[in-house]
Amino acid sequence: MRQKLTRVLGGVAMLALVAGGAACSSGGDDAASGGDKCGNKIAFFGALTGSSAALGINENNGVKLAVDKYNKENADCKVELVELDSQGSPDQAPQLAQKAIDDPKILGIVGPAYSGESEAAGPLFHEAGLVAITASATRPSLAEQGWKTFFRVVGNDLSQGPAAGTYIKNVMKADRVFVIDDQSAYGAGLADEVKKILGPAVVGTDKVQGEGKQVEFSAVVTKVKAANVKAIFYGGYYQEAGLIRKQLTAAGVTAPLVAGDGVNDPAYITSAGAAAAEGTILTCPCQPATEARGTFVEEFKALNGTDPGTYSDTAYDAANILLAGIKAGKTTREGLLEFVKGYSGEGVAASYKFVEGGELDPAQVKIWAYKVQGGKVVPDQEIPKA
Amino acid sequence: MNFDGLFSNFGELTTTGLTQGSIYALVALGYTLVYGVLRLINFAHSEVFIAGAFAAIWTWNGFGLDQNSQVSGVGSIMFYLLVAMIVAAIASAGTATVIERVAYRPLRKRNAPPLAFLITAIGASIAISEAFGVYTRRLPEGAPILVGTKPLFHIAGVPIDGVQLLTIGAALVMMIALDLFINRSRTGRGIRAVAQDANTAALMGVNKDRIILMVFIAGGAMAGVAGLLYDVRIQTLTYSVGFLLGLKAFTAAVLGGIGNLRGALLGGLLLGVIENYASGLFGTQWKDFAAFAVLVVLLMFRPTGLLGESLGRARA
């Protein structure tokens, strides 16, 4: 019911935006000669449907809030939000990116949410000079492609992987660890970093299939069981992680699962069941969205009807960076790109400043450990830099 | 290559492989039955399975059980399992009936080319799967933990738990019942007659449409039970899991000899253990590679599968 209500409200909000945009363009005749200052758009690019939609919806809701607030403050010159649903698929990403590029009113993108789709869409944005700030794609190589339009407001896997390894080693003090990954660039990248930190403590490894292609993990479970480990690291996303955790617990494996931000989602607990999920450690290059500064949490809840989830706050910040540029009169793609490049400021989740390749300044990266407790993901502690 | 891992875990890899294989086998029966009678690969059968699996979970939800519930007491466990099994079998058989009535029978009446059947089958499959996807908002649904996974006893040092016992046991019982039904009952004789020569059977007074419907219902019921066993074993269901499971079950049917009931059983169990052995030996990422490589190689030497086609073969 609430879902429906939210959708209806969202629909009304969209209508209002469109109407506002129309009013704006008709009233701004005298300004038209100096370029279109109004009626600009920003787009959210990520999965809004499909098996990995949960994070995308979190982010989109954050962006929605940013745009909503902007439009309330700048009622005479609104910005429209375009939602590009990639379903998280790298195959769909290029054509969606082209769609955004073909709309000259779209000045900036929040996204793409995942690393795979970022890889596919990145070159197109680079060529079109369309700035894209991702709030969650953490694959390190994305910043090494020479794309001048790529920025991220979170740390990358390289910062998250060692932190997860450090946590397993120093906080959990586990000396026997099993490492599993889903063969995705994200999952395998994370697992490799963890293996580097843990070294000989890794007593077994295996690879599974991600993207919902595998639901039956008995062979992995058998191996983990035989390895008699103190902790299990999984590099991958929540869907498989939930199933693996459930099947491990069913087979009597009680060692806690440690995983990256791709698993940091309530759907992991639904999928694993609260009892099996209990005690799971999840790392994230983001501080708890509920610990965001200011009135973000209340405002988010008022608009979306749910608590902010993983990356809601960073997506909100990413959108605000774009909106700050538009507000400052950077209403061309080149102008906005330059603005983002030189941006330095505070958001609700962190402080932002970009270094080479569009990476977030390493000094600003925070990695948090979360814990599943009583069927909920609760913040555990910020992981100290080893 | 991890021979050590394979050998030290050989027993457990075998039992879990057989468990998964039992589910493949039950679904494979549906493919084999329909193929045996109609020479049609019913690609929508994976969604017949999904319908049963969702029906079982929703039945439990109706009793107030969700993924965090734990049920104790043999009596109530049996009750929940039995009710869900009946509902799942009915839901799956119903879905299969609807597919046959809406998607296949009209085509048959108009003598449509085989290609039309194939594309309708794929269309029906996607339509049903997407409907479940939209209805469940593409989120996983959890099943309660009904059957514990504490080892009940050991066979040669390999622990056997309740889920494995239930899955393999139920699959075998269903399989034997179906085998008896096809080979001993009057309807079964009709099914074999239509499979052998539909037109002659019709001349002998066999109602072809009724027989075909029976085939879909029988295959559907098997898939429904498979859906229930899947829920008990995996405990989480997503709308999209039918596709790959259906593909595996179809593979199992071809491996054993499509159109052959016992072949479906053999193919299913074999596929289950091959996957697990390959996972143990090469790593889980090689699971599907190994399964399909075995299929290709086997078909090179035995194009009709391990046991060959036989549903239509005359039997005294």
Automatic annotation (TrEMBL), chain A:
Q: Which PROSITE patterns match?
A: PROKAR_LIPOPROTEIN
Has keyword Transmembrane helix? no
Q: Boundaries of each Leucine-binding protein domain copy?
A: 41-355
Per UniProt, the keywords (alphabetical) are: Signal
Report whether Signal shows up as a keyword of the record: yes
Signal sequence, renumbered to the chain: 1-24
Say which domain of life the source belongs to. Bacteria
Q: Which InterPro entries match?
A: Leu-bd, Peripla_BP_I
Give the protein family: Belongs to the leucine-binding protein family.
Task: State what protein this is by name.
Answer: Branched-chain amino acid ABC transporter substrate-binding protein
From TrEMBL, chain B:
Family membership: Belongs to the binding-protein-dependent transport system permease family. LivHM subfamily.
Q: Which PANTHER family match?
A: BRANCHED-CHAIN AMINO ACID TRANSPORT SYSTEM PERMEASE PROTEIN LIVH (PTHR11795), HIGH-AFFINITY BRANCHED-CHAIN AMINO ACID TRANSPORT SYSTEM PERMEASE PROTEIN LIVH (PTHR11795:SF371)
Lineage of producing organism: Bacteria, Bacillati, Actinomycetota, Actinomycetes, Micromonosporales
- GO molecular-function annotation terms? L-isoleucine transmembrane transporter activity; L-leucine transmembrane transporter activity; L-phenylalanine transmembrane transporter activity; L-valine transmembrane transporter activity
Q: Name one Pfam family in it.
A: BPD_transp_2
- How would you describe this protein's topology in the membrane? Multi-pass membrane protein
Instruction: Report if keyword Mitochondrion is assigned.
Output: no
Biological source species: Micromonospora globbae
What's the protein here called?
Answer: Branched-chain amino acid ABC transporter permease
Q: What is its main location?
A: membrane
Q: What transmembrane ranges does the database entry give?
A: 23-41, 48-65, 77-103, 115-135, 155-182, 211-230, 236-256, 263-283, 289-308
